[in-house]
Structures are given as C-alpha cells and as structure tokens.
C-alpha cells in the first residue's frame, strides 16, 4: 500500500461521512421550517420563510418571529446540546450507555427549578427559575468533583454521579411531598415532564449562552475522545491530559445541560439515542460522532416538538414525555441490534 | 550510551509503596526484559518510567529530566503499550495505528501528512498488518489485534518502547513472532522494555534482564547472570532446565510438585 492509496482510502471514508452530515443538516433545516409553520395557525414553508425575513402579513410575522421562533431555536439548541453531551460522555467513558443524566446534572437542575416553584418565588415563566436551575446544575458538578477528586477513576465518577442524581431525585420528591398547595405540585409535575411551549426570547437569551459555552468546550476536546479509544493509560501516554479532559467534559455538560433543563424541564433519551443513530452512518470514531450527534439531537427534539403539536389529544402532550416514550423502546432496539458489535470491544 | 536512567525511584499506589529505591540505566538498541513474580511492581515501574504515574527520584531520558518535559514531549519519547491491547470502539485497524501519530500533532487519521502516513505504513509493514487496515479491530483475532496494537506503538517512532506483557494470551507462535518483531525494532536503535512472565522468551530475546521482586531490583544484567540459579530460587522459587538450542539460550522453569 502506498501513501497515495492510504490517503485515498481516508478520503473516501471522509466523503461518505460528509454526505451523511450534509443530509442531516438538510433534515434539520427542513424541520426548522416545519416547526415555524405548525401551530393553531398553519403556515406553508414558503409563508414561513417570507415572514422570517420580514415579508408577508404582519400577523404571520408576529406568529413566526415572536411566538414560534424562540420555541424553535430552543428545540434546535437543546436537542443539539443533549445529543452532543451524550456523544461526549460516551466518548469520555467509552461506554455507549452513558448519557448526561449519568452525572446528575439534569436532575439537579430540575431540583433547583422545582424548589423555586414550590417556594412560590417564581412561576414557570420567570427568570428566577432558570437561574437557580443553572446554579443547581453547577452545584451538582462541583459536588461530583469534590467527591471524585482530581484524578478519580471512571467507577468513582459513575458512582458519585449516580448518588448525586438519586439525591436530586429524592430532594425533588421531598419538595413535592412537603408542598401544601396542590396547584403548585401539579405545576411542578408538569414542568418536570419537559416542554418547550410558550417559551420567549427571554428564555432563549438565558439558556443559549450556557448551551453555546458548553458546546464549545465539548467540541474542543474531540480528538482526545479518539485517543481515549485505547483506554485512559494509553491516551495519557499519547499526550492527553486525562484528568483535565474529564473536568472539561463535566463542566461542558453541566453548562450546556444545566442551561437546557432550566428552560425546558427534563427531556430524556435524546443524549442517549442520538450517537447510536449516527454510528451506522458515521462509524464509531467518538471524535467524528460529536457534530452529527448534535444535529441528530436537534432533529429529534424538533421532530418531537412538531409531533406534540399535531397529535390530536384533549390535553397537551409534553415533549419530554414523547421523547421518552419513543426513545426508550428505540434504544432497546438499538442495543439488541448492536449487541454483537458492542460485545466485541466494549466491556 | 545510556538512553534512559532512573535514580532512587520510589512509587506508591494509594498508601502502599510499590517501588523501593529502584536505580537503573538502560541503553539504546537493547531489548530489556522486565521480569518478576505477580505483584512485584513491574507495571508500576513501566508507568513510572513513562511518567504516567508520579514517582520520587530522578528519571532521565536522552539527557533531559523527565519531570521537566511537557506531556506532549513525553509522549514523543515513550511509546507505551498497556496490557490487554484494549480498544473500546470498533475502529478500522488503520485508524488505531494512526493514533500513534497523535503525539506528533496528527490527531485526525483522515488528515495525516505524507510524513505521518509513511510512519503509519512503515509500522504496519513491520508487523504485517497492512492487509487488514480496513477491518475493524474488534473483528480481528487475538494475534492480529496484538500486532495492530504493536503497530500503533511503533508508529510513534519513539526512542523508547515500553510494552506491558505484549505476549500474554497469545499462542506460542505469536508470542515468538511478537518478541522477534520487538527484537527487530530494538536492532534499529530503539530501547525496548518488555514486561513478561516467560523466562524462556526473556532468555532468548533480551540483551538485558531486570528482575523485580517486591518492588526492588533483585538482579539485573545479561540473561544468564540475571536469571541465575540463585535468583530464580530466591525470587521465583523455581529451578530451571537450561540448554542451548540452535545457538540460543533455553530456560524452562521447573518446580517439583
């Protein structure tokens, strides 16, 4: 095999990955337009695009740019950061079952938000809620690092994450348990289900900086995930500072997912499923899976958020419920399909 | 000329001190066998030499103190093969070998410079894995996978190779193949340190043997000195059948049952 052959083989593989990513991008754009068009007033894709760029009727402009755009941006960004976080954690832990909820950040963010609602400090549309949720997500990560220490192994991290997420879940349950006002309990329960309804640009402005910061941190570590394919020791011998990488990934996930959960409630399984959907198309290289997984996460959440608006039902279906209902069986199917491949190399 | 030296090396795992006052001095072009009973600290010594775990005492590599070298620079000087040839994702063998260029800044196997591609191809040719470059490592047999792992280490083109039990779980033919490949690499001017439990392979292929016992160097030197009757009895609690076959040393450990 010559240098030319080698380079050619790499290029063929790269071209296949690029076409898959481009197709994914087209799908996301399509879903963005559909998402802006669907609601009580249905708008055609052309009308949506016209309104988006300042044409069409005033009513259409208000509907698209002020009512539906924030919701659509949030679905895109939150789905994206969930997919990206899932891929990053799976890369860090070399475990295809890893997901953001593993480290307890979403659960802790949810607890922070629930506490605010229960204490009557704010309703679900005010600023205090996301702020406290983000602080709680940060708190959980700091607790995780304090327990795990600077150079903790994977097992300690997972156990500490499990303990923290269980604790956050128990604390959330306690708050609901002690809450005297049944309406507040109902509000909390619905909030926990996860939804993107009635979100404004205020929510976007609050969540987006954290989501972007988290995404930048995670994407910057892409090649280190590839080196980790050989295990922590070998990766370190190749020049990867594994301890630092671990901290960065946890910080990135906390920032992104904390910001996301704060405005949407808990939306599950996107982080878990997105990388799996991409592996047959992109391959198993954890560095290459990051961007496609983020796009898949965006597509999944956009599609789910469109679906909850079209499915006829007497009361609103929450998008978080839908992602779980569809996500879990699909994930089980993926595990069964990949069982043999996974059993080969992933302990 | 000394390439790698350690002076008064002490290392601990948790609260347990694993290495006690290890001093050694090793030369380029040598294949060094690191032997010792289970738990003697062989892997810890290998990791300490590569700077993968903290240790007291001074390690010098090619004239520089290891402590003064950045992670990336260490990575260029030591190629480290951990036990078990672990690969967590089913990547093509070629991408795994290409990870050997990571210390040189080539972090993406799809965008290697011609120089990096040449190094990868050289490494793959040296251990005969070129033909299954496209196959996923998880689909290879144990022997093939160990050669891919070896190629990844060779692709670093580091002056020192540290291999932790590269022959474990291989059949006799593959064990001999792997040792012969490492021998060939050493002959090109590299210092190769191999942890092994196979005293026969150590005696046959090594220039220099380090015998580690309870974290201390019990003996070191040419195979026949370091693996003397007295050392085998005190460190391994075995005697040995010794012979010469095709002008190479044969040692078969023996214990009465």
Structure, explained:
The complex is a heterodimer of chains A (347) and B (257). By secondary structure, chain A is mainly alpha-helical. Helices cover 77% and strands 0% of the residues of chain A. Chain A contains 14 helices and no strands. Chain B has 257 residues and is α/β, with parallel strands linked by helices. Chain B has helices at 42-50, 71-77, 93-98, 114-126, 142-155, 172-187, 199-205, 223-226, 229-236, and strands at 2-13, 16-27, 31-35, 56-61, 64-65, 78-81, 160-164, 191-195, 208-213, 216-221, 239-245, 248-254. In chain B, helix 4 packs across helix 5 (142-155). The radius of gyration of chain B is 18 Å and the shape is globular. The chains are: A mainly alpha (347), B alpha/beta (257). The A-B interface holds A 1-3, 6-7, 9-11, 13-14, 94, 223, 226-231, 233-234, 236-241, 283-287, 341, 344-347 and B 47, 50, 52, 71-72, 74-76, 78-82, 86-91, 94-96, 99-100, 102-103, 107-112, 114, 117-118, 120-121, 124, 130, 133-134, 137-139, 152, 156.
Summarize the structure.
The complex is a heterodimer of chains A (347) and B (257). Chain A has helices at residues 3-37, 45-52, 58-93, 105-118, 128-148, 154-178, 182-193, 201-220, 222-227, 232-237, 242-264, 270-282, 290-310, 319-345. By secondary structure, chain A is mostly helical.
List the helices and strands and how they pair.
The complex is a heterodimer of chains A (347) and B (257).
Chain A: H1 3-37, H2 45-52, H3 58-93, H4 105-118, H5 128-148, H6 154-178, H7 182-193, H8 201-220, H9 222-227, H10 232-237, H11 242-264, H12 270-282, H13 290-310, H14 319-345
Chain B: E1 2-13, E2 16-27, E3 31-35, H1 42-50, E4 56-61, E5 64-65, H2 71-77, E6 78-81, H3 93-98, H4 114-126, H5 142-155, E7 160-164, H6 172-187, E8 191-195, H7 199-205, E9 208-213, E10 216-221, H8 223-226, H9 229-236, E11 239-245, E12 248-254
Parallel strand pairs in B: 3-8, 3-9, 6-7, 7-8
Antiparallel strand pairs in B: 1-2, 1-4, 4-5, 9-10, 11-12
Helix pairs in contact in B: 4-5
